[in-house]
Amino acid sequence: MKWKIYDCLSKKRWLFFVLLVLCSTAIVHFTTQVLSDDPEITLSLGEPWEDMRQRSSAAISPALPGRVWFGMPKSDARLRFIDPQYGFETPLARFLTIGYKNECVTDVRMSPQIEPLLLDDALKVVLDLQDQWLQQGWFVSSPRNDPPITDTPQGRNKIRGLLGSRTFWQASDKYQVMLDIGRFKDKRYPDQERFLITLELAKPWIPIKTK
Fold first, then answer.
1. What pLDDT score was predicted for residue 14?
2. Which residues form the signal peptide (predicted)?
3. Bridge partners of residue 197, in order along the sequence
4. pLDDT reading at 187 higher than 70
5. Are strands 175-183 and 194-202 parallel, antiparallel or unpaired?
6. What local confidence, expressed as pLDDT, does residue 208 receive?
7. Which residues are CB-neighbours of 28 under 8 A, at least 6 positions away?
8. Are 12 and 74 in contact (CB under 8 A)?
9. What does the pLDDT read at residue 21?
């Protein structure tokens, strides 16, 4: 029970942070959008920050030397993860942060959408990401506790629940992804049920649970 309360509180803090970033970056978006239709942040974990900057078509500031911090692109951008075996791509994102340490990429936290979505549209994004991972050799880290997100009556009910739906996927012992989808109250659409997707990518941090 304590863990459920903790997860709920943590999720509320996370959603508040995402909303704050979405609102603040919306203003920047109109003046800094790159001319390309789909600006990209193109990266691999562990690579030098400057390599990521030079490769990406979306502008992002240099890393601060000696700091453990994060950067954000100056426009909406897709994430293209370029591992030769486990690579994948996301839709355009307004909230996208890339963590770094010693001027090297360490992790990604993002919401792969430019606004909270209707459930049908949100599920299209989630199912496409899961399909990419499955095709590229990722596997579900904890199939019993955190199974893949599904477009079924039971799956939709879980997404609409207090804690939403969450799953973890892993690529060998190299990477892990946490994917979460849950309801998000958007004041622009007071009569609509909207949903927010969050994605975290890093080296594995949750143990594999096969049972």
1. 59
2. 1-30
3. 181
4. yes
5. antiparallel
6. 85
7. 74, 75
8. no
9. 55
Q: Where are the domains of the chain?
A: 23-110, 112-202
- CB–CB of 118/193 below 8 Å? yes
* Beta-carbon-side half-sphere exposure of residue 137 (alpha carbons within 13 Å): 10
If DSSP codes are grouped into helix, strand and coil, which group holds residue 207? coil
User: Please, what is the average pLDDT of the chain?
Assistant: 89
What pLDDT does residue 209 have? 78
Q: Which residue has the higher pLDDT, 35 or 155?
A: 155
The total number of residues shown for the chain amounts to 211
DSSP codes joined into one string, 24-92: HHHHHHHHH--SSSS-EEEE-TTSBHHHHHHH-SS--PPPPTT-EEEE--SS-BEEEE--TTT-EE---
Structure tokens at 194: 């909207």
